[in-house]
Each structure stands twice: as C-alpha cells, then as structure tokens.
Known about the structure:
This protein is α+β, with helices and mostly antiparallel strands. The chain folds into three domains: about 55 residues; about 130 residues, YerB-like fold (3-Layer(bba) Sandwich); about 140 residues, YerB-like fold (3-Layer(bba) Sandwich). Helices cover about 20% and strands about 25% of the residues. Strands 5-4-1-3-2-21-14-17-18-19 form a ten-stranded mixed β-sheet, with helices on both faces. Strands 9, 10, 11, 12, 13 and 22 form a six-stranded antiparallel β-sheet that branches. A two-stranded antiparallel ribbon has the order 6-7. The longest helix is centred in the N-terminal third of the chain and has 16 residues. The radius of gyration is 22 Å and the shape is globular. The protein starts with a helix and ends with a strand.
Amino acid sequence: MTKRKWLAMCLAFSLLLLTACGKPAGEGDEETISVIQKLESSTSFSSESASQVETDLGEINPLTGEGGYNEEAVGKRPVAVMVNNIGQALPQRGLAEADILYEVVVEGGITRLMAVYADPYDIPYVGPVRSARHYYISIALPMNALYVHFGGSPAAYQYISQYGVDDVDGMYTQSGVFYQDMDRAAAVGREHSFFINGESILSVLEGKGVDIQGETAAPFAFAEEEISFEEKPATEIFIRFSSGYNSGFTYDEESKLYQKQRNGEDHIDGDTGECLTYRNVILLFTSVTSYNGEAERREVSFAGGDGYYMTDGGIVPIHWEKGGVTDPFTFTNADGTSLEVNVGKSYIALTDESQRQYFTYNQ
C-alpha cells in the first residue's frame, strides 16, 4: 500500500469513528474492518483528499521521519554535540531530545556520546559537553552537521581545519556562551560542568558568519509501513564496548520503544528524570585500534562490516559501509537491499570486533 493511500485510509477511518453513533470501544469491530477492507480496494478517494491528509501531518523531521516538525527548521543544518559519558558526568542533560544518539569507545575503554538534533532552534541545555574525536567528526560531516565540542584531540583539530568543519568550541568561545554548573564543577571537576543550548550555539555560529542553511542527510531511509521482525525476537539487548562500559536495551511493547541502560542501570536524562528511549537500535561491528601508535588514542575503521538492526522487539542482520571521512553510512539488508528503519529516534553503536562475543539478545 502506498503512503498516500494509507493516509487516505486514516482520514476515512477517523471519519468513520466520528459517525459511530457513540458505540462503546470494541463494538462494531467487524463492520469497521469490512469498511476498511472496502476502502483499501477502493479508488474513490481523490488525490486532493490524500494531499490534505499529508498537509495535516505538517513538516517531517529529516532524522526521525516524524511529522509535526518545526517549519522554521526546514532547510537548516542539524547540530551534533559531544557529550561526556563517564560516571562524573551523570546525569547528563538534553539527551532525551536528541534525534539520533551515537556511542563509540574512546581512550581508556570509556565511551563518548554524540547527540544529533535536526532542529537547531529547539536544543535544550545539553551536556556535559566534552572534547572532539576525529572519528566522530567523520560521522557528523556526511549529515552536514554543525559540530559542538569543548576541546579536542590533535587529530580532531586536524580534521576541523582540513575539512572546514563549522564548529562551536568551548575552548575558544567567550565567557557565558557555555553555561557552567558551579555545583557540578565543585563536586566532580570543571571539565564535567559545561552545558550549551540551541540559542547559544546559533549565536556563536552567527558571529563566525557560518551559514546554517542546508540539507540534512539522514544515515538511513524511513519505511512507509511499520517494520516488525516478530519471528526473530530481541526484547533484551546487551552491547559491550569494553570491560567497563556497556549499553543495554529493554523493549516496551506498549510504547514500542527500547529503554536504554548504561552499565546495567537505567540511562536517565537529568531534565526529564526518565529513561532514554529509542525506536531503532543499530549495532555496527568494526575495528578499533590505537591511533598512530599512541597508547591511549583510538582509531575507528569505517571500511565497513556487519551488524544488526533492532526494532519492534525484533532483530535482523545488516551490512554497513562508509569509506572516506565525508562519505555517508550505507546500510543494507542481508539480501543487499537498502535498509529502511521505523519512524522514530535512533541509537547507533560502533564497537570493536572483539566485543562481538559479548553481544546478546533473547532468542
């Protein structure tokens, strides 16, 4: 069924409910099903009716596929923010509002997060903001993202210069651009205390003369109809990055969302007080090695490999490729067709091949 036809059916079904003479829920189900079956095979709905339904959905968020997107943000570049993920950084703020959350290991076996927001005007205070890594820049660039960080590795600064990254760097911004939580600074250290919101990000970029106009390139396409892999259940997921860092996910059937855990405990957003949730969970296996022979710095290969896509409590194997720094991810199914994902927020993890043995899901 095409998206246009499905939308027309939704409109018709809504009208049917409004004329159901006040029947209690559950009554007249057979009649309703019969009507919908007729509508599905009917060509009586005009293109104008379907177009009106599409218009009612409003603009579409390019990173989640969801309707009701801010019209002012259409044609604007997304924002990627580096967020600290060590114990002293908890609870983080603003992660619940991110459209895509990336997690990759950095030095010492810890992970760092990159929260990506399609709407630059609607970014809450997010952080603690932490330093850049060059492989995160390689993820952000193909999305045409504006990049926010507080400091960075030598390789990251080289990438910023070499590829002309439009960034906001806490090391080189004037006082007051980043909000500092003084209580956190006193309790856990200055480096875990800086936050920034969309208004401040845009003010810095405007001062630098950065053009925020541009298309947003999502790393995947969204399915027109809901995807489900009920025959391959994955309602409990465990992803390991190192001996000290892992992420888990528990599927909630009612909301159709995965609730995220961090090192065995619910991953809570400090603003909402609730667990982070995602419609899509994507795991990519790769090679993580030392960078340029350094003992601590990491290098993440983007040559490609395999992984898994999890949604609606199910799982399927996938293949991925990327290649160069500015090349986008390409995700395909086992049969070589392009991967489509469900509408909603996504979590994407890249972990070393050595961690494959620890990856588990219920079967």
